[in-house]
Amino acid sequence: xxxxxxxxxxxxxxxxxxxxxxxxxxxxxxxxxxxxxxxxxxxxxxxxxxxxxxxxxxxxxxxxxxxxxxxxxxxxxxxxxxxxxxxxxxxxxxxxxxxxxxxxxxxxxxxxxxxxxxxxxxxxxxxxxxxxxxxxxxxxxxxxxxxxxxxxxxxxxxxxxxxxxxxxxxxxxxxxxxxxxxxxxxxxxxxxxxxxxxxxxxxxxxxxxxxxxxxxxxxxxxxxxxxxxxxxxxxxxxxxx
Length: 241
What we know:
Helices cover 32% and strands 15% of the residues. The chain has helices at residues 13-22, 44-57, 66-77, 82-99, 105-112, 145-148, 151-158, 172-175; strands at 3-6, 30-33, 59-62, 117-119, 124-127, 179-182, 196-198, 201-203, 215-218, 224-226. A 5-stranded mixed sheet has the order 3-2-1-9-10, with helices on one face.
């Protein structure tokens, strides 16, 4: 079994299909999706539909992203958040309305059953954005931070690389886990990016919502595969550009 981590999809279904083929993914592999399945390209409904089907044939873990939560709130309440619409939600709204409300129930269940984080047997943590509690994710006071926080990645990038985990100034947040895998903060919005490591944090959001590729990475070997730039699959669409 291989264990793969997959960055933010943002409705880039065609890129995901290309990646699964490139990485030669099999039903024996464990696929950990880091969230943000919707908002950007025009296939939001189709993307979630594909993931629901994929979960029946493959071992999948679906982490909750902030865009997924915003979409779910709209589906339940009908209230159109202007900020959500301006940041990819408009394409998602159109996709779901086109599909028809009678097909939404299974998707709402999918959104509801996502996990805020996943911790594997090797003490590797997977979550969409970050956390702030110095004792770790089990002690976090506000679960929204798991899919909204940006301070974890900012801290990792700013950390003096000469510091070791035993140093008194080393961030306590990082000491609880062997590695941390996140998305949420795109490494580039204007072009090609590859997964980036800072401290023991790996960011695999390579800008699929904008002009970057979608990325899948083997968490053991750190080998990764990337799709074509996602916007090239959706000619005539702006995404979040």
